[in-house]
Amino acid sequence: MDVAHYMGVPLGLCMAPLLLGIINRTKAFFAGRNGSPLFQAYYDIWKLLRKDAVYSRTTTWIFRSAPVVGLGSVMIAMILVPVAGSSLFAFTGDLIFFAYCLGLMRFATVIAALDTGSSFEGMGASREVHFSTLAEPALLLGLAALAKLSGSFSLTGMFGGLSGSDWLASGPAIALIAFAVFVVFLAENARIPVDDPNTHLELTMIHEVMILDYSGPDLGIVLYAAALKLWVLGALIVNILICAADLSGFSGLIVFAGGMFILAVLVGIVESIMARLSLLKVPQLLVGAGAMSVLALILVMRFTS
Amino acid sequence: MNLLTDSILVLLILASFLLLSSSRLSNCIKTVALQGMMVGVLPLAANDSLTCRVTAIALVIAGMKGIVFPYMLFRTLRESTTIKELKPYVGYTASMFAGVVSLVASFWLDSRLHLPVAASSRLVVPVAFSMMLTGIFLIVGRRTAVNQVIGYLVMENGIYTFGLAIVRDVPLLVELGVLMDMFMAVFVMGIAIYRINREFDHIDSDQLNTLKG
Fold first, then answer.
1. Does any CB of chain A come closer than 8 Å to the CB of residue B4?
2. Rg (CA), chain B
3. Which residues of A have a CB under 8 Å from any CB of B?
4. Which of B6, B93, B107 minimises the CB distance to A287?
5. Which of A38, A190, B59, B208 has the greatest count of CB atoms below 10 A from its CB?
6. From the CA of A277, how many Å to the nearest CA of chain B?
7. Is B23 on the interface with A (CB under 8 A)?
8. Global pTM?
9. pLDDT for residue A44 is more than 50
10. Which residues of chain B form beta strands (DSSP E)?
11. How many structural domains compose chain A?
């Protein structure tokens, strides 16, 4: 095992907030502004970590523990995702473990939002749960299709088992999976067209409303965990798309990081040219992503049988 | 060749899903035009040996389904004041679920069905079934007359695709006959919608139930 094998997780831990910077710069470019610095997310997190936290009297230990639980679970999910063909830890069935690590993170955020006793945060929690109920089948069915295609039930084996010849044999199915996971990626990370990360105190927001009561280091941890979640789910898409180029070692790491940056630019473009969907349309979008995953699964079963 | 055929077939299914989930009638017409064009060029992708005759028929069919029918539907839509399907019998998310269920059903049906001839791609027959089912669903589940015509067109696309899978080569006379019938049907339906719109100021076919002789 070379050094590159262990580099995947540190790479993610260091570079995840950079993705936010790239997205914001892309949006600024489209709007004709200069935009905030690329490393703004790092500055924000650093600033918040040095402050004191203020807690409302109605909150309990649930509210205080949620950021740490969220950060912990997204880090565990990060260990499972392969970077450049190898992950730190892999076992059969870890794709379900991966999905529910992210589920645990969401659960912590939601119950902390309910713990504040604010009706506004409860509303956001309700929306978050509603949408993720629809996004989860799309993600799991897409991963199931990949598992069927590669014959392996661990994330590392799945992406390692894919190759350029799979693209030739069942390219439409893989493209469908990539698109469905991309929609889930946008929905889970509260990006446009599902949620607008820039709006505060708007009646239509989802993620921002749940973390309104956090301040200081807690808010910093929440922001960092959200950046890591962006990285982890984005890594799935990049892995699906670059599996054709069989790379490992440092060249693999560089290609992977480049793929993540291109993905961030893509998110920025999507946010610049699309409006946020109305809340009633969001379930439709997510069910559409789920339908694509089902279609991909059927196609894969048809191709490999 | 096979990858191209499969990609077109997958796009056909995606177009059906899009039709099931969109409410704006002009978008529906554009989608069905795109689907018709893709169905039209399908024989070009599926056939290994292209003859002049097959190419000509494919282009004519793509032109009819992709340009002429949508043009007639757009003209009808302009006459009426309706731009959106407001209250469909089945909601859009539920329609999407129905589309997925019908897709699974078509693949199951295809696995039970032992056709005497092998289709050019393993996806052609199930995709054709799913398009027929989607077409029927659109006819039953939507109120506006334009959407019902669109359902009829989707169903015809499915039947055409199925015929392509079974006979492989496109019989000239039969296809032209079917196309002529289609043309007449859309023409007559366009006139009917126009008359309904002029008499009653809307194209909601559900309201026709209240007419008493």
1. no
2. 17
3. 168, 170-173, 176, 283-284, 287-288, 290-292, 294-295, 298-299, 302-303
4. B93
5. A190
6. 13
7. no
8. 0.90
9. yes
10. none
11. 1
B81 — contact with chain A (CB < 8 Å)?
Answer: no
- Say which of B7, B13, B96 has its CB closest to residue A287: B96
DSSP string, chain A: --HHHHHHHHHHHHHHHHHHHHHHHHHHHHHT---S-TTHHHHHHHHHHTS-----TT--HHHHHHHHHHHHHHHHHHHHS-BTTB-S---TTHHHHHHHHHHHHHHHHHHHHHHT--HHHHHHHHHHHHHHHHHHHHHHHHHHHHHHHHT-SSHHHHHHH--HHHHHHHHHHHHHHHHHHHHHHHHHTT-TTT--TT-SS-TT-SHHHHTTT--HHHHHHHHHHHHHHHHHHHHHHHHHHHTTS---HHHHHHHHHHHHHHHHHHHHHHHHH-PPPPTTTHHHHHHHHHHHHHHHHHHHHHHH-
A38: tokens are 């690329």
Q: Are A206 and A199 in contact (CB under 8 A)?
A: no
Q: Which residues are bridge partners to A86 per DSSP?
A: A83
Q: Are B187 and B67 in contact (CB under 8 A)?
A: no
CA distance to A80, A156, B137, B154, per residue, from A91 (Å): 9, 9, 44, 46
A125: left (phi over 0), alpha (psi -120 to 50) or beta: alpha
Question: In chain A, what residues touch B126 (CB-CB under 8 Å)?
Answer: 302
CB contact (8 A) between residue A288 and residue B96: yes
List the domain range (segments joined by +) for residue A233. Answer: 3-304
| Single-letter residue type at A265 | V
CA distance B94 to chain A (A): 9
Report the pLDDT value the prediction gives residue A162, as an integer from 0 to 100.
Answer: 79
How far apart are the CA of B4 and the nearest CA of chain A, in angstroms?
9
Token pair 């918040």 in the structure block, residue: A48
Per-position b or e across B193-204, b if 16+ CB within 10 A of its CB: bbebbeeeebbb
Whether A302 and B13 lie within 8 Å, measured CB to CB: no
Residue B1, chain A, CB below 8 Å: the answer is no
B16/B109 Cα distance (integer angstroms): 19
> Hey, what's the torsion of the CAs at A40, A46, A49, A51, to 10 degrees?
-80
Question: Helix, strand, coil proportions of chain B in percent (round to 5)?
Answer: 80, 0, 20
- Determine, for residues A299 and B10 on separate chains, whether the beta-carbon distance falls below 8 Å: yes
Supply the ipTM of this predicted assembly.
0.83
Residue B188 pLDDT level (bands cut at 50, 70, 90): confident
Instruction: Please write the tens of the pLDDT for every residue from B157-168.
Output: 998 888 877 766
Inspect the interface and report whether the beta carbons of B21 and A299 lie closer than 8 Å: no
Q: Which of A298, A301, A303, A305 to mutate to test the interface with B (most CBs of B within 10 A)?
A: A298
Nearest to A284 among B7, B14, B92 (CB): B92
How many CB atoms sit inside 10 A of residue B143's CB?
18
Q: What percent of chain A has pLDDT over 70?
A: 96
